[in-house]
Amino acid sequence: MVKTNIQFLIRFISESFKSALSSQLNNLSTQLISLLLGFFIATAISTMPAQTGDWGIIAAAIIVTINEIISKLTYQNKSTSKRYGYTILLYKSLNSIKIGIIYGLFVDAFKLGS
């Protein structure tokens, strides 16, 4: 059987679609795990300082500082930073952990308020 250009085109499109889909699913699962990890960390953060009672202000300052550092790394000017694929995934994962921590702290605050 003779391979025509249309067969090469169809094979190229299908292989490109498969590789894009697999990388997006891998990225999605990494982001979801990072988000849930952040939610777990927030639960741990909110219960540990509550045991002693005097670490509330210090823990809040540390959380805010870490969140701001992660935001600076994630949202800095992309033209000045040379990022590669693995560092982009790392920054996205750190940002998802940060979002999970913030979400977890809000959920805990609503639980305490009700």
Distance between the termini: 72 Å
Q: Please estimate the helix content.
A: over 70%
Largest sheet data: none
- Percent of sequence in beta strands: under 5%
Any idea what the shape is? elongated
What's the count of strands? Answer: 0
Count structural domains. Answer: 1
Low-confidence stretches: none
> What number is the mean pLDDT?
80
The SS-based structural class is mainly alpha
Note the total helix count.
3
| SSE succession | HHH
**What is the C-alpha radius of gyration, as a whole number of Å?**
21 Å
Quaternary structure state of the chains depicted: single chain
InterPro entries: Uncharacterised_Ycf20
Transmembrane segments: 28-49, 55-75
Keywords: Membrane, Plastid, Transmembrane, Transmembrane helix
Pfam families: DUF565 (PF04483)
Summarize the structure in words.
By secondary structure, the protein is an all-alpha fold. 85% of the residues lie in helices and 0% in strands. Helix 1 packs across helix 3 and helix 2 packs antiparallel against helix 3. The chain has one domain. It has three helices and no strands. The chain starts with a helix and ends with a helix. Keywords: Membrane, Plastid, Transmembrane, Transmembrane helix. Belongs to the ycf20 family. InterPro entries: Uncharacterised_Ycf20 (IPR007572). Pfam families: DUF565.
